[in-house]
Structure formats: structure tokens, C-alpha cells
Amino acid sequence: MATPVLLEVIALDARDAVAAQTGGADRLELVADMRADGLSPTVRTFVEVRAAVDIPARVMLRLADGFAAGDADALVRVACDTRAAGAEEFVLGFLDPLGEPDLPVLERLVAELDGCRWTFHRAIDRTGDRDALRKRLADLPGLDTYLTAGSADGVDDGLPTLLAEAARRGEPGYGARLMVGGGLRLDHLPRLRAAGLDAFHIGGAARPGGWDAPVDADAVREWRTALDAGVGSAVAH
């Protein structure tokens, strides 16, 4: 039996969350300030989203643009406060000055999350050695997803990498689900689905009016319909 196809949508607030769920999203990535490519939302925003929808929401742990951790103590406080408000899923990912995973910060945060599931986000697209990063993170508790375009420049450039990594599913370091996002378009889906990829992440594609406009339920529904139409072509795993 094929694994159900996951559609994750970026939400900035409860209005976005409701539109995403209405359009058929399975999960939210909850962030603030997309001018900085997505920072941690406030606890209040998380609480409002949780009251508005019943699909899971992964909360971003990131306090500044870029992929350096910055103030680790502040990140821990955000994680602690959001968990106390009921958050059970998160998104994070930090690199050190050499472009390698910042293990001291990641391990500290993961310990605070205490078994919560989390996504390592597109920091993987900025590392010098994706394979080494995956293997170094493989034993961190709760890591179940990599959000990646295959390239820092987006899915157009990263498609060969995505297809190659999909073929390595199950190898050491390749157990976490690969979720495609970053310049993703509907015309990318046939090749990605044929390779067995079954998780997709959209942000701007859910907002035809741009980031100053809310999520559009019809835009999300177009993606949901396209993904559901291709379920039969997926490789079961």
C-alpha cells in the first residue's frame, strides 16, 4: 500500500491555518516574518492556530535570518515556552561557520524537545556535504523529516539530487522522510512522485497574492488535487 502523500503549507496565523486546512493541507509549518525566510512565531499565535484547526502544526525554532543558531539560550526558551503551550512538532536546523551541522546547539534543543518529532529544514541545502550531514544527524531523537529543494537555488537545480537521495531511502542516514520544498512547482510533481517522493511543502505557491496576502484555499486545493491524482504512481515503501 502506498504511503499517503503529505502536503505541508506555511502558515503565519490562524487565518492562514484555516485556509490551508480547508484546501486540503495535512500539516502546517508555523512561522513568522517571511522577509527573514521564517522565524519562530509567538506562543500566542501558536495557541490561536491550535484553536482554529485540527491538523498538526510544526513550529519553527529560528530567531534570525540565515542558518547560524545565534543565541542558543533564547532558542531553548522559545522551545520550552511553545512546548508548554502544547506544541508537539517543530522545525529547526543550524550550521556552524564551516557549513557543518551545529551539533552542540542541535543536541541541546533536541534534548529540550524530549522526543517531539521535528524537521531539519533547508539548512541541508547550504551544507557542503549533504551525505555527511545526514549521517551525523541520523541518531538525533525525533528527527523524521528533511525539508529540501536539493539545492540552495531551488528545485529546478536540485531535482537530480532529490531523485538520487530518494533512491537511497533506507540507507544509513536516509531513514528520515524527504519533503520537497523551495521553488517547487506543479510541473515538478510527476518526476518527484514517480521517484516515490511523498511529502511536499509550499509557501508562496499557496499565496497567489504574494506574502502580504493570506493563504488561498483554492490554491492549496489545486496542489491537493494534483497530489491525489498521482497517488497511484507512487512507489510504495
From TrEMBL:
Gene3D superfamilies: Copper homeostasis (CutC) domain
UniProt-listed Pfam families: CutC (PF03932)
Domain of life: Bacteria
Record-stated family: Belongs to the CutC family.
Listed name of the protein: Copper homeostasis protein cutC homolog
Source organism of the structure: Streptomyces neyagawaensis
